[in-house]
Amino acid sequence: MAQAFAGSNPAPRINLMLILILHGIAILEKMRSGFIMRFIVMIMINVNSSKRKIVIIGLHNVGKTSIGRMFISLSPNEALDTEPSINVEKYIKETILGVSNIFVTPGQKRFLSALEHKLHEIIVNSDIIIYVIDAADKKRMEKMIRYFQKVLELISSLYGTQSYAPKLLLLAHKQDIPGALGRKEIKRLFIDPYLSRYSFLSEAKVYETTIYDPRVFIEILSKEIFKHSILNFDHYIVKLHRITRAQVTCLSDTEGLLLSSVGNEEIAFDIAVLSAKIFDILIREKTISSSLTPLVIGDLTFINILSNNLNKKTLIVFFNVSRKKHALSLALVNYKLLFYNTLQKVIETTRCIKTIYQNRYKGETNAS
Ligand SMILES: Nc1nc2c(ncn2[C@@H]2O[C@H](COP(=O)(O)OP(=O)(O)OP(=O)(O)O)[C@@H](O)[C@H]2O)c(=O)[nH]1
Ligand SMILES: [Mg+2]
What we know:
- By secondary structure, the protein is of the alpha/beta class.
- The protein folds into 2 domains: 10-42 and 229-360, Dynein light chain 2a, cytoplasmic (Beta-Lactamase, 2-Layer Sandwich), CATH 3.30.450; 51-225, 3-Layer(aba) Sandwich (Rossmann fold), CATH 3.40.50.300.
- Helix content is 35%, strand content 22%.
- It is built from 10 helices and 14 strands.
- The strands form 2 sheets. Strands 1-4-5-3-6-7-8 form a 7-stranded mixed sheet, sandwiched between helices. The protein has a 7-stranded mixed sheet with strand order 10-9-14-13-12-2-11, sandwiched between helices.
- A hairpin with an 8-residue loop joins strand 13 and strand 14.
- Helix 8 (234-244) runs antiparallel to helix 10 (339-360).
- It is elongated.
- It starts with a strand and ends in an 8-residue tail after the last helix.
- The protein binds guanosine-5'-triphosphate and magnesium ion (MG).
- Guanosine-5'-triphosphate (GTP) is lined by residues 58, 60-66, 80, 82, 84-85, 106-108, 173-174, 176-177, 210-211.
């Protein structure tokens, strides 16, 4: 493996409670102005899939490495900082729910024939194969289709019609470039002609992606990689939502994955990503903007953001549920209950969530 990236947060546990009150639009607006507010986050818990193997395949320069990096960093700037790959790269996405090992293959012509022999090994036992298409590169579309056919043949030779064949996702990538082909067109070119030969293709899905809109990557992580929940926090999130009369209530992990939400989903995704970014700042930089006023309550970290411009206020609470390095984040947007009553309800809810999590992961958790 040429490169290995660990999960994006070194993220030590939150031991102390800080309540940080952020007045005005400063941080929220700064963040909104960047890309981070555009992430869509959606995840459900799959405790049966704590380790997932994802393989990203495609021709040279289609954006595979950028996509691998995007899954980890959620940051377009970091994701786009790539060189043509010379080997299979491995990226590790660690969430509170488990680990995804993401293998990215090199696409340059000089590696493709060598890779053909290794591809068996790489895709065997994979849970998801992601085939990346540069949807804006019409000149190479034929080549991309031909390489896709090879991938189909390989999957077919490895798995036949077995139901445990890996899930196949096609990314119609570089959607930011004008004229990029959309989902329908990619399906017409890459899937429809081969459906009769490869029955597993009927399960394949096409996502439109661009590095400049990170939400789709989180959507993929959520809907395709960690889906199906047997740990369900919805009851507590719905209850908190009702009591606080918030516009949006959501629970996510500090990697940005949305575990449960009520209210406008777009806002929930944005807030989940915002939470991940704030957590990252808390952990990595330690020093935060002087406009933050720290407050301390118990063993929770609170951040209250008042956004004058948008006339929205957001309360975000970080809390540990285990010894693992990731924490959870509970957020309320435009809650109507008084601030201190809201805090009390939030604290009660975090206790319930901790209990559910700890009951499921006995032994791994910090029985605090
Ligand atoms: N406009 C645009 N450019 C992108 C996007 N994603 C990646 N790129 C650019 O496309 C080029 C190739 O990206 P890589 O991720 O290195 O491509 P790759 O598929 O890994 O290429 P190989 O390693 O050679 O197989 C780089 O210049 C990226 O900055 C995107 O969503 N939009
Ligand atoms: Mg690459």
